[in-house]
């Protein structure tokens, strides 16, 4: 009979990838908690309008990548392509701003984008997402970046580069848009892709984010935002960079970093890895003043980021695989119950490990212990059963000792 297979771009996650996820979530909770963040869980399904109004109608995410469908009553729903929009909706709906001047919220979970799957790019992927709502000061941006870099260091990833830019604000962006339009007008528009020919007029910044190679080449000498940012944005950016300098966090200023979502202004940043192939951006974020108001909420500014967990897991590899303390091998079927009880005692004493359920050959059981990566193998044979002892074998050194059952916890 034919079997049912998973959907393209969706994955089952066994160990060690699932271990890496558990590990990242654990470290995330600790690190974000130490900065005053609490967890918010929002639904996976939201009204389609939420994403159109926040991420932006002209973005690839909204135009090409959303899983959108009508429910049984004909309402258009979308499986969240990112977490920020849902967090904003929840913040507005629960009227959080009336209770908290600053709300710091983290979210873990699956996101959905209909992109072409490849290494590090999935249709269902997972983000670790953090948002700091309330402050408009550059110190909030700086703290968010410090927290992201602390988290990445704590999970053991240091070979990463931080790219940063400012996208200006509602005061200075119009001048920049005008400069971009003037630049595009001087190009052979026919050489741009169809989307960009439209975006040139509707949302010129999006042209700079186009992934089509021809568009990338044509826009390589486009004017940069730094030449157009207002005094307030320039000062804001300088203050963010000053904190990074003081914290000795290396960064690269990338004037082409426009990000793929429309809601950003002022600070934008990405963390890029040199070791996981083409899908190199492991985290991205920035400031989005005006987004909450645009969604019908109060005029509360915000800044945040999201990490792609699959990409971080690719970098972590097998580094996070847990190593059990013991594996119990039984050579005499009369020892099966004793083994089970011994394993129970060890787990109560805080050790981790497993026991064989059948007295198979020594070779087969040692192979099983090796596959489990156990630190120690405890061997129970006929002699040991008779004497109330266990042979303890250290798998790294190969050394063996005969230990009374009562003393076993001290040897594992
Ligand atoms: P984003 O840059 O679209 O930002 O996504 C953040 C991260 O999610 C990316 O850097 C990448 O690691 C991961 N990611 C995105 N798409 C995929 C995919 N198809 N497969 C695997 N990983 C992927 C946002 O989503 C913003 N909401 C971040 C943010 C929060 N800005 C402010 N607050």
Automatic annotation (TrEMBL):
EC number in record: 6.1.1.21
Keyword rRNA-binding recorded: no
Segments forming domain Aminoacyl-transfer RNA synthetases class-II family profile: 29-324
Binding-site residues, L-histidine: 82-84, 113, 127, 131, 259, 263-264
Assembly information from the UniProt record: Homodimer.
HAMAP family reported for this sequence: His_tRNA_synth (MF_00127)
Protein name in the entry: Histidine--tRNA ligase
Biological source species: Desulfovibrio psychrotolerans
Lineage: Bacteria, Pseudomonadati, Thermodesulfobacteriota, Desulfovibrionia, Desulfovibrionales
């Amino acid at each position: 009979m034919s079997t049912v297979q998973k959907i393209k771009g969706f994955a089952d996650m066994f160990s060690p990838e699932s271990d890496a996820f558990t590990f990242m979530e654990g470290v995330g909770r600790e690190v974000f908690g130490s900065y005053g963040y609490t967890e918010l869980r929002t639904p996976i399904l939201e009204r389609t309008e939420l994403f159109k109004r926040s991420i932006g109608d002209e973005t690839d995410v909204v135009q090409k990548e959303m899983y959108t469908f009508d429910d049984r009553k004909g309402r258009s729903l979308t499986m969240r392509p990112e977490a920020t929009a849902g967090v904003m909706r929840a913040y507005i709906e629960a009227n959080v701003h009336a209770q908290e001047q600053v709300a710091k919220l983290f979210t873990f979970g699956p996101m959905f984008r209909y992109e072409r799957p490849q290494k590090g790019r999935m249709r269902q992927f997972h983000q670790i997402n953090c948002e700091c709502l309330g402050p408009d000061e550059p110190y909030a941006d700086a703290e968010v970046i410090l927290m992201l870099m602390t988290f990445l260091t704590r999970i053991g990833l240091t070979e990463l580069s931080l790219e940063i830019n400012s996208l200006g604000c509602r005061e200075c962006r119009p001048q920049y848009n005008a400069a971009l339009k003037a630049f595009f007008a001087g190009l052979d528009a026919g050489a741009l892709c169809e989307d960009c020919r439209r975006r040139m007029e509707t949302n010129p910044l999006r042209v700079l984010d186009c992934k089509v190679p021809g568009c990338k080449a044509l826009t390589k000498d486009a004017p940069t935002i730094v030449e157009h940012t207002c005094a307030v944005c320039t000062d804001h950016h300088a203050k963010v960079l000053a904190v990074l300098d003081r914290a000795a966090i290396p960064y690269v200023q990338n004037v082409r970093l426009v990000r793929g979502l429309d809601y950003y202004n002022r600070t934008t940043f990405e963390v890029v890895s040199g070791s996981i192939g083409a899908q190199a951006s492991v985290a991205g974020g920035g400031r989005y003043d005006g987004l909450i108001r645009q969604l019908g909420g109060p005029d509360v500014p915000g800044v945040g980021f999201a990490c792609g967990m699959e990409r971080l897991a690719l970098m972590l590899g097998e580094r996070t695989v847990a190593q059990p303390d013991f594996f119990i091998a039984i050579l005499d079927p009369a020892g099966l119950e004793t083994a089970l009880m011994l394993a129970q005692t060890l787990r109560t004493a805080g050790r981790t490990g497993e026991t064989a359920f059948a007295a198979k050959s020594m070779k087969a059981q040692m192979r099983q212990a090796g596959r489990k990566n156990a630190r120690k193998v405890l061997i129970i044979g006929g002699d040991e059963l008779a004497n109330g002892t266990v042979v303890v074998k250290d798998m790294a050194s190969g050394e063996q000792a005969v230990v009374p059952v009562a003393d076993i916890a001290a040897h594992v």
